[in-house]
Design a protein that fits this description.
The chain has about 300 residues and is an alpha/beta fold. The protein contains 10 helices and 9 strands. It binds guanosine-5'-triphosphate (GTP) and magnesium ion.
């Protein structure tokens, strides 16, 4: 942190790290984006969308919270999924507070009970956020809240709609109170620790998740081969490779006369242009990397 920022930290300023954890697909990344008022984490209706820990920084006059979005915690069998769950579990030990998200529509599952057991002995305070209440009749919330209170006694439970923002201000108020006194770690304009390269890869991956089905999205990874800023033209040139796990996935991803790949490319480019606030030239390649999801070295290269 720059010295002048430290000097600017007002008296009584609070700061710290807050993990967002829960089963896959409960709305963790949607919540992160909502807390920041900006999309920095990809979201899809499919479970296991998030694979890495993603920091989102929220700075106010009186506090700075570094939210850590994590992959969904579940009983994972494959190597990639085990690594993803480890990312989430390792985050728990390093934070000042934890937001445990549960899905009000789906109710509590075995995985939620196991997460509660993991959270119980931790030192960091836990706030339980009952998400997606827009999808549930009010009368059905009470039994879920009672069960939550049994699973993790004496923690505040806040019903929210991450998608639309209901309950989120109340959650933010409680979160700020959890934070210890401390300085700003990041300057005011910083919103994430992700590089633009990583973000570009994630946006492409999101479009693949949104467009493909069954095992295809889970066998897909995206790497950036080139990311060149042409400042004089207000343009960024991005070349990205979509890695697929099987030879048979390649034609599916390309689609009839290239239609699928073209659509993925167009959607990703349009969104990147908004995020980067410049024109983007995006070129996509597909490469078959047999069995990469079970290969420790391939996973290491992807930060997993
Ligand atoms: N109706 C409704 N849908 C929501 C809400 N929050 C999230 N969703 C939807 O739930 C789905 C999963 O959201 P994500 O934010 O990707 O969930 P996640 O917990 O990050 O999922 P993983 O990264 O796969 O663990 C998406 O289709 C979201 O639009 C909500 O409050 N209401
Ligand atoms: Mg996510």
């Amino acid at each position: 942190m720059a010295a002048e920022d430290a000097a600017k930290t007002p008296p009584g300023h609070r700061s710290g790290y807050v993990a967002i954890v829960g089963r896959p697909n409960v709305g963790k990344s949607t919540l992160l984006n909502r807390l920041l008022g900006q999309k920095i984490a990809i979201v899809s209706p499919k479970p296991q969308t998030t694979r890495n820990r993603i920091a989102g920084i929220r700075t106010t006059d009186s506090s700075q919270t570094i939210f850590l979005d994590t992959p969904g915690i579940h009983r994972a069998r494959s190597l990639i999924n085990r690594r993803m769950v480890d990312v989430a579990l390792n985050t728990l030990g390093e934070v000042d507070g934890i937001l445990w998200l549960v899905d009000a529509r789906e109710g509590l599952r075995k995985d939620d009970e196991e997460i509660a057991d993991r959270l119980k002995p931790l030192g960091a305070p836990v706030i339980v956020l009952l998400n997606k209440i827009d999808l549930v009749a009010k009368g059905k919330l009470l039994p879920v809240m009672q069960r939550l209170a049994e699973l993790l006694p004496e923690r505040e439970i806040i019903p929210i709609t991450a998608l639309k923002g209901d309950g989120v201000d109340l959650a933010l108020d409680r979160i700020e109170k959890l934070l210890p006194e401390g300085p700003r770690y990041y300057t005011e304009g910083e919103i994430t620790d992700q590089t633009e390269r990583f973000l570009a890869a994630e946006i492409v991956r999101e479009k693949v998740f949104l467009r493909t089905r069954e095992e295809i999205p889970y066998g897909t990874a995206v790497t950036i081969d080139e990311f060149t800023e042409k400042t004089e033209k207000n343009l960024v040139v991005v070349k990205a490779t979509i890695h697929v796990e099987r030879e048979t996935h390649k034609p599916i991803l390309i689609g009839k006369r290239g239609a699928m790949l073209k659509e993925i490319g167009t959607q990703a480019r349009e969104e990147l242009e908004k995020i980067l606030a410049c024109k983007v030239f995006l070129e996509l390649f597909i490469r078959v990397d047999p069995g990469w999801t079970q290969d420790p070295n391939a996973l290491n290269e992807l930060g997993l």
